[in-house]
Amino acid sequence: MKHFGRLHLLYSAALAGTLSMQAFAQNPVVESIPSGSMDMTRQTAIANQRALYPERGQRGGVGTGGKPIWDHQFPSKWEKVLAASAEDQKANASFLHQHGTGIFRLLAANDNRSVNVADLRKPFVPIKGNGAYYSFTKRRNDFDEWADIALRKGVLVTGIADYSLGGIAHLGNIPLDTLNLETPGVEYLAKMSPPVTFEDAKRQFNLLSQGIGEDGFIYKSSVPNSVDSTYILRSVKYKRYDALIAFRIVRQDADGNLTILWKELKTFRVPALR
Questions:
Q1: Which percentage of the chain shows pLDDT scores above 90?
Q2: Distance between CA atoms of 234 and 94, rounded to whole angstroms?
Q3: How confident is the model at residue 154 (pLDDT cuts 50, 70, 90)?
Q4: Beta bridge partners of 243
Q5: How many domains in the chain?
Q6: What is the side-by-side strand order in the sheet with 133-134?
Q7: Is 138 inside any structural domain?
Q8: Could you tell me the residue range of the domain that residue 109 belongs to?
């Protein structure tokens, strides 16, 4: 692995390899977040808070350790932004009592570098990715090596972390509590063997970037989001974990933010990439 650099593959996938991202530039799915973007996120978050709470601006906007004051309020303030509404949690309470289930929000992050007055009134979370990413394993919205899924311009994308690959299929309007390994559309990803060499992963990229049809379903790196629809996701993190996840979009608000209900169907032996 020491000869590998960074590479994003679409199985949808991100893998590490000696080739650069330019090798697959003709089919980009997720743009790399540029260095320094966390500073931009913080500055936008500070601008957001100063616009909504001008009286706090007199404190200088910086707390201990040189961090914005609002960073320290994340547990109480920003987790509420990322959490599903009390209504949605109550409506799915019975389901959420089951093992390996959860509910969360994906924020429709502003992809532009400019921020207008309307943007300042929208939720803006001072973490990398602005709440537009989620890890089913860690149950958090950070954009890091554990991220499984992202919302980009109305499209759900997987395979976004380093040394990872994934595929999604839209199954239709199927209740999650009735979905299992025998449900049509699930078998293909459940039986998928993750590639263990760079060249095999590259071939998967070339196929899955366009989508693979199997038994009436399309397995691809990215799919449009649709409310009251259920999806199946295979997310592989080399040397970390490999899981099959079913999820359902239960709500989309006026700003495009999604509320997603999910359950883990199966975990697999963690693969390594040669």
A1: 51
A2: 25
A3: very high
A4: 235, 267
A5: 1
A6: 133-134, 149-152, 155-158, 222-224
A7: yes
A8: 5-267
Run of H or E including 122: none
Is 273 part of any domain?
A: no
Round to whole Å and give the CA distance between 268 and 262.
18
**Does some domain include residue 99?**
yes
- Chain length of the chain: 274
69 within 8 A of 63, measured Cβ to Cβ: yes
Report whether pLDDT(106) > 60: yes
Residue 274 lies in a domain: no
Which of 7, 11, 8, 31 lies closest to 210 in space, CA to CA?
Answer: 11
- Which amino acid is residue 204, in one-letter code? Q
Q: Which residues pair with 272 in a beta bridge?
A: none
Query: Which amino acid, 24?
Result: F
This prediction has a pTM of 0.72
The two structure tokens encoding residue 2: 């020491």
Contacts 24+ apart (CB under 8 A), 67-73: 68/42, 68/126, 70/45, 70/46, 70/126, 71/42, 71/126
